[in-house]
Amino acid sequence: MRYVLGLDGGGSKTECVVAGEDGAVVGRARGGGVNRNFISEEGFERSVRDAVQGALDAAPQVRELAWAVGSMSCDGASMRAIAQTYALDPAHIQWVGEALPARSASEIAHRRVPDLVVVSGTGSLVAGWGRDGKQRGVGGAGSIVGDEGSAYWVGVRALRRLVECYDGRRPFERFAQELTRALDIPNLRTLIDRVYGRGVRPMTRDEIAAVAPHVAALANAGEPFAIELFKGAADELAFQANAVIRMLEMQGEAVLVQLYGGCFRAGAVIIEPLRQGIQAYAPRAEVLPPLKCTVIGAAALALQAIGVDIADAGVRQRLLDGGLKYSVI
Known about the structure:
Blueprint: E1 3-9, E2 14-20, E3 25-31, H1 41-57, E4 67-70, H2 77-85, E5 93-95, H3 99-110, E6 116-120, E7 124-129, E8 135-139, H4 151-166, H5 174-183, H6 188-196, H7 205-209, H8 212-220, H9 224-248, E9 256-260, H10 268-281, E10 286-287, H11 295-305, H12 313-325
Parallel strand pairs: 1-4, 4-5, 6-9, 9-10
Antiparallel strand pairs: 1-2, 2-3, 6-7, 7-8
């Protein structure tokens, strides 16, 4: 039995699975975020090691690895050491970005290959594939000059709203009351100290993005400003998606769109306005249910690299079962 690694790394977490050539997932583990723009090199190495070595520790029968595919560049000292230990040829490690694993995961989960992938997690981006097979994409420029429509984008705007309510620019409305309670922020001084860390430890990008699930809960409970925030996020993502559709010249075609990322766990408050925004530009577009994670897609790409047919019913089902078992699809 040959074994492969699939990795899915982003701003807040890194997932890793080990799969056999029959598609069975035999190990899985998680590490922290791997975006080098926002973490130290030590933190990056720890995230990779925790995810990859943890997944391998869960599968003691694995002595060698045939291939690895990751959705980010994990090529650090930890990965090189693990590759050497498991006789993984460096030429058999591929870093392919976030979009291709999501496309492959969609094929596993939905038996359909999307034309567009819309990512909204800690950050955001959109990628698409034309009829010529070439990939085009927008976004992904990071939290300072990009990441529109992401969980970070929502979190920043939610915290700004709290400041406006605390300093009197707006009434201390239900949104502020509920969010300050959820975040345990009793006053403006506490909010400012937490955001900036008194010059010692400001809130991280991940911690600001972690505000978004609280906003999602309010939106799903009918709070107007929370709903408005997620509608704004959907509009930003639709703007990006429609730009890619225009670049691909597919406005009149039945564009298949796959959603991926934690922001979509908010549900209909972001998915429905996003669907409407895309269909207003490309009326025949279809939006698939969101994926939680693309690590199974990365594993599928690794299996394809060693000659496994992931369209085989048994292989696909075992990959799907593994993804469901570990809640990564």
